[in-house]
Amino acid sequence: MILTAEILSRTVGLPPDRANIFAPLLRQAMDRFAIVSAREQAAFVGRAVVECQSFHALRENMNYPHADRIASVFHSKFKGDATLAQSFVNQPEKLADFVYGGMYGNRPGTDDGFLFRAGGIYGLTFLDNYKSCGNALGIDLVAEPERIEDADVACLSGAWFWRFHNLGPLALAWDLKGICRVVNGPGYLGLGEQVTWSEKLLAELGGSQVR
User: Fold this and answer.
1) Using CB atoms within 10 A of its CB, is residue 171 exposed (0-12), middle (13-18) or buried (19+)?
2) pTM for the full predicted model
3) CA–CA distance from 59 to each of 86, 115, 119, 151 (Å)?
4) What pLDDT, on the 0 to 100 scale, is given for residue 169?
5) Are 128 and 104 in contact (CB under 8 A)?
6) In sequence order, what are the beta bridge partners of 59?
7) Which of 35, 105, 145, 150 could connect to 127 by a Cys-Cys bridge, CB 3.0–4.6 Å?
8) How far is CA 57 from CA 87, 106, 119, 175, 205, in A?
9) CA distance 93 to 99
């Protein structure tokens, strides 16, 4: 069974217009990066649904209206201190540059943190990763980072991330928690949703879980 717009709509509740856009693009991306088996495809798409909010958020929104939310989301930077976070309220560029500046190729004193904030269906972040992904895709994502928001590039970037981090073996072992950790870190954010979507997709794609 191949991933169709109908399957996307039925399993993850994607509106038909969005499903018609993303189903073929996901298939193309999976074909290009050899994400072939039912388990791999289900796990790949299942995590993507969580990361990009059902394909509605292809770029990280850094515009936060409340300081306590900033302090919570970026706890490692603010240590839960809403007072410290107050000056970053409704300041997306300033917040992104503070949180992501000077890391993984992002140059201190520039807007790299904002330019190379999370994008695509797997939340690609940092200049170094945009550069590596762009080189693999034949697209200059350093000069044009906004292209990560294009639906086709967004899907390809996710498939590149999957292959670059060798997530296939985890999917074949149906280790969804392991995939979550690689993609999103040790907090396992969204793991419950990921499991739900992945299992529904696997059933539709004709695969079986490994226990």
Assistant:
1) buried
2) 0.93
3) 23, 10, 4, 11
4) 97
5) yes
6) 119
7) 105
8) 25, 22, 8, 25, 25
9) 10
**Cα separation, 198 vs 139, whole angstroms:** 30
Whole-number Å distance between alpha carbons of 36 and 47: 16
Contact 191, 179 (CB under 8 A): no
DSSP H helices, the chain, are: 5-12, 16-32, 38-51, 67-73, 75-78, 82-85, 92-100, 112-115, 127-137, 151-164, 168-172, 176-184, 191-205
Q: Who contacts 192 (Cβ-Cβ below 8 Å, separation ≥6)?
A: none
Torsion angle of alpha carbons 162, 167, 172, 177, nearest 10°? -110
Reported for 97-101, long-range contacts at CB under 8 A and 24+ positions apart, including other chains, are: 99/62, 99/74, 100/125, 100/126
Residue 119: strand pairing partners? 59, 124
User: Which residues, given as ranges, of the chain have pLDDT below 70?
Assistant: 207, 209-211
